[in-house]
Amino acid sequence: VPGGRGGGIIKLFASKQVQLNGSISANGESYVCNRGCPTFSTGGGGAGGSISISAQQFLGAGNICSSGGSVQVACSSTISGGGGAGGRVFLRNHDSDVIDLISLELNISAFGGSSDGCGAGGAGTIFIEFNQTLIVDNGFASFWSAITPFPYQDSSHANLTDIIVRRRASFLFPVADAIS
Predict the structure, then answer these.
(1) Per-residue confidence at 59, pLDDT binned at 50, 70, 90?
(2) Do 180 and 150 form a contact (C-beta atoms < 8 A)?
(3) DSSP string of the chain?
(4) Higher pLDDT residue, 56 or 142?
(5) CB atoms within 10 A of CB 180
(6) Cys staple from 18: which of 55, 76, 105, 176, with CB 3.0 to 4.6 Å?
(7) How does strand 133-137 pair with strand 125-128?
């Protein structure tokens, strides 16, 4: 069953700063079927990939994106798969003395892809290490989007200062674990 391919992996290490005025993306592939759909059903959009960037400082007004692929099917007799899940973005500061780590003008996203038939993919996660912030943001996707699970196997080892869930993202935190 045809569908979109996943976004892949990008790993970048800069000894000083990353000045980003363009885009870094590991988006999942979208699947579009305009005519002659090959089967009764199609696959979904590809999942967003993984982006890991380590630097002393992040500057610029660019985009970092690891979103899932969308699905569009024009055939009324075809059932489409769901949108691909958002990927993972990890920003790591390897110099804790730098205070102004991230420019507020950077646009970082890991949205789930949309779908004509099934629901949108779940949001990916954005982890900013220097302030221990986990962001789950689905960019106002459909209300029928998949749930994003907590990304750590053992949440007792996750030292998070903030968990931000916004713009129609659904986030599943293990019930047995304490949140403090």
Answers:
(1) confident
(2) no
(3) ---PPP--EEEEE-SSEEE-SSEEE-PPPPEEE-S--SSSB---PPPP-EEEEEESEEESS-EEE-PPPPEEE--TT-B--PPPPP-EEEEEES-TT-S--B-TT-EEE-PPPPBSSSPPPPP-EEEEGGGTEEEEE-TT--TTPPPEEPS-SSGGG---SEEEEESS--EE--TTS---
(4) 56
(5) 4
(6) 55
(7) antiparallel
